[in-house]
């Protein structure tokens, strides 16, 4: 056997079978390498067959991805010149996120390669719950055409789901569906895959650190009967580092959302001092325009309306107020022409006096101020961040925008078909959130409870989402009593408790709550659940229940306190929530925020009840939810 072939350990079940398979392969001039995860459950096999790499992924001795081609230079034979291995176990602390500390524990295989005149490394990292592949390429002729090509040979019985822009996610799709469809759907990452045993997700990580590469294009190849990720690039720099191709593996669907493999694969923090980056909640004006209070005041794009938002934020401890579009009439090189009814300097001064930070929208379609000057101008205004709209799925622009905003100590929220730069919040934590979803009332179309559930289980795998959940005046919105409410009346199906739960379930560094201060004040006892969430400052996050199109339960902890949110589809139902995550021998006070017996997502969405109680470790809470409803708990030690 060749000196580079794998040396097997016989302590794992099923190893003998793999030894026989690989030995037969080596007899046919195959060079096989294996790397296993720390717990031994996940393994990657790589074969160099006549100069072409093929990888396969095994989980608990089941083949979850059959041999699939992997390459970086098309039509170039690959020769392995050296094999190295690393074992890593370390911990690191993100600036913000679903966890306060993350463990990076993986086994790594590094293959040094000769590709014609070029040299390269193929790096394969294997975690207990995922794998990543990356190439590092050097010594090539400038202008060489590269293509980070990766196949994913799945089983015919696997079911696929994926995001669909500002529409409900696609799925379930089978390979047979893709093979027989005349116009195949656009497959966006992350792809969620239901197999007979584990759940998988296909995506990428660290695109921010890979200049020249665009978002991976996923297609179905009829000739290969396989999913294919292709990313063509002209190699100009002396050294090229690809993004990571990532495959997540979890026994439970919900665990894909809290899987830390993409973050571990992302480049470490690139900012010397990130202390100015503060995750949190923000009020938002855009969906409130036209809302009239009982006293006769009507919200609009004006100074008095913004004073009201700032007053409420200061009173409730809401960190931010987001001013959306139309604060300016037009932009030109180095100049904004302000709206007539808005005294922005006065609003900025008032917010500073009240201790509320401001975030400001920008839309280059309305004239271009100039990106090279935009961020420094926003900083000069005292803005804490920028919400960037209609920049397009432009990877080079997004990379530069993240860096430029960081240089000016601005957080950035990308909207309107943004780039899903998975893992970027580790590298540049000022990239606080993105609207990589059908956000609530996008294009004035309200999404259904089922659409929310899909996005919470599919879109959320790629990272933080700005989804704009948390409306409380559901009756008024459905009646069309807003300038920018749903175009179709009574199309917004939800309950106020479900809206509160959604703000917890969807992970984001900036939770944008879209209703009027008066709507929240009228339900102050329910708003308490949103108000007290330590957004982005979680020590631990878990998805306790998850079933596609049916329900989800998420629990997040800071210190000794837990917040738990559940939502259900339009059938409604009851979930048993086991509180076995609480500390033993400790009594807790719990506040329940619940749908009432009369609540219904269509006919009576604003009915709810709040009650308190005491619980201990091992207690089981029966969370009963109305059609389209939800259930929330705030648990803290006595």
TrEMBL record:
<comment type="subunit">
    <text>Monomer.</text>
</comment>
<dbReference type="Pfam" id="PF14509">
    <property type="entry name" value="GH97_C"/>
</dbReference>
<dbReference type="InterPro" id="IPR017853">
    <property type="entry name" value="GH"/>
</dbReference>
<dbReference type="InterPro" id="IPR019563">
    <property type="entry name" value="GH97_catalytic"/>
</dbReference>
<dbReference type="InterPro" id="IPR013785">
    <property type="entry name" value="Aldolase_TIM"/>
</dbReference>
<dbReference type="Pfam" id="PF14508">
    <property type="entry name" value="GH97_N"/>
</dbReference>
<dbReference type="InterPro" id="IPR029483">
    <property type="entry name" value="GH97_C"/>
</dbReference>
<dbReference type="InterPro" id="IPR029486">
    <property type="entry name" value="GH97_N"/>
</dbReference>
<feature type="domain" description="Glycosyl-hydrolase 97 N-terminal">
    <location>
        <begin position="35"/>
        <end position="268"/>
    </location>
</feature>
<keyword id="KW-0106">Calcium</keyword>
<dbReference type="InterPro" id="IPR014718">
    <property type="entry name" value="GH-type_carb-bd"/>
</dbReference>
<dbReference type="InterPro" id="IPR052720">
    <property type="entry name" value="Glycosyl_hydrolase_97"/>
</dbReference>
<feature type="domain" description="Glycosyl-hydrolase 97 catalytic">
    <location>
        <begin position="292"/>
        <end position="435"/>
    </location>
</feature>
<protein>
    <submittedName>
        <fullName>Alpha-glucosidase</fullName>
    </submittedName>
</protein>
<dbReference type="Pfam" id="PF10566">
    <property type="entry name" value="Glyco_hydro_97"/>
</dbReference>
<feature type="domain" description="Glycosyl-hydrolase 97 C-terminal oligomerisation">
    <location>
        <begin position="537"/>
        <end position="635"/>
    </location>
</feature>
<dbReference type="GO" id="GO:0030246">
    <property type="term" value="F:carbohydrate binding"/>
</dbReference>
């Amino acid at each position: 056997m060749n000196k580079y072939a794998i040396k097997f350990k016989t302590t794992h079940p099923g190893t003998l079978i793999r030894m026989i398979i690989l030995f037969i392969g080596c007899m046919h001039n195959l060079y096989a390498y294996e790397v296993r995860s720390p717990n031994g459950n996940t393994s990657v096999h790589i074969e160099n067959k006549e100069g072409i790499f093929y990888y396969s992924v095994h989980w608990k001795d089941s083949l979850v991805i059959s041999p699939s081609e992997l390459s970086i230079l098309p039509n170039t034979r690959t020769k392995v010149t050296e094999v190295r291995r690393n074992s890593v176990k370390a911990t690191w602390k993100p600036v913000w996120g679903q966890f306060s500390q993350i463990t990076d524990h993986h086994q790594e295989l590094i293959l040094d390669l000769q590709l014609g005149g070029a040299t390269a490394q193929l790096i394969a990292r294997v975690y207990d719950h995922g794998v990543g592949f990356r190439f590092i390429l050097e010594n090539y002729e400038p202008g060489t055409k590269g293509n980070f090509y990766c196949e994913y040979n799945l089983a015919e019985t696997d079911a696929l789901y994926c995001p669909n822009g500002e529409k409900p996610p696609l799925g379930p799709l089978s390979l047979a569906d893709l093979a027989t469809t005349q116009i195949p759907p656009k497959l966006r990452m992350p792809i969620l895959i239901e197999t007979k045993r584990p759940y998988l997700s296909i995506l990428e990580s660290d695109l921010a650190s890979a200049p020249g590469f665009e978002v991976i294009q996923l297609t179905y190849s009829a000739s290969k009967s396989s999913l294919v990720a292709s990313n063509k690039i002209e190699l100009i720099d002396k050294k090229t580092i690809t993004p990571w191709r990532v495959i997540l593996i979890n026994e439970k669907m919900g665990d894909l959302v809290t899987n830390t493999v993409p973050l571990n694969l992302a480049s470490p923090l690139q900012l010397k001092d990130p202390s100015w980056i503060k995750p949190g909640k923000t009020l938002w004006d855009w969906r409130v325009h036209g809302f009239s209070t009982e006293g006769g005041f009507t919200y609009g794009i004006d100074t008095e309306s913004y004073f009201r938002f700032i007053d409420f934020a200061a009173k409730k401890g809401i960190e931010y107020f987001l001013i959306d579009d139309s604060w300016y009439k037009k932009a030109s090189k180095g100049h904004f022409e302000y709206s007539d009814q808005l005294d922005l300097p006065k609003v900025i001064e008032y917010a500073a006096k009240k201790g509320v930070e401001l975030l400001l929208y920008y839309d280059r379609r309305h004239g271009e101020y100039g990106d090279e000057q935009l961020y420094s101008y926003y900083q000069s205004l005292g803005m804490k961040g920028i919400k960037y709209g209609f920049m397009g799925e432009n990877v080079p622009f997004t990379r530069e925008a993240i860096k430029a905003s960081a240089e000016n100590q601005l957080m950035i929220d990308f909207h309107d078909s943004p780039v899903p730069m998975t893992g970027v919040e580790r590298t540049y934590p000022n990239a606080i959130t993105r609207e990589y979803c059908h956000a609530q009332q996008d294009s004035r179309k309200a999404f259904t409870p089922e659409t929310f559930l899909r996005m919470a289980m599919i879109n959320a795998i790629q990272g933080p989402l700005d989804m704009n959940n948390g409306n409380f005046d559901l009756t008024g919105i459905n009646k069309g009593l807003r300038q920018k409410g749903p175009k179709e009346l009574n199309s917004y199906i939800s309950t106020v408790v479900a809206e509160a739960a959604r703000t917890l379930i969807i992970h984001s560094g900036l939770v944008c709550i879209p209703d009027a201060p008066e709507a929240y004040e009228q339900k102050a006892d329910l708003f308490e659940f949103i108000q007290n969430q330590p957004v982005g400052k979680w020590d631990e996050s878990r998805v306790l229940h998850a079933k596609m199109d049916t329900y989800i339960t998420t629990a997040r902890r800071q210190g000794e306190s837990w917040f738990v949110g559940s939502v259900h589809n339009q059938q409604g139902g009851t979930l048993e929530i086991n509180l076995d995550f609480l500390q033993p021998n400790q009594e807790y006070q719990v506040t329940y925020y619940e749908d009432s017996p009369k609540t219904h997502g269509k006919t009576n969405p604003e009915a709810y009840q709040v009650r308190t109680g005491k619980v201990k470790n091992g207690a089981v809470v029966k969370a009963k939810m109305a059609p389209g409803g939800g259930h929330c708990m705030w648990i803290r030690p006595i």
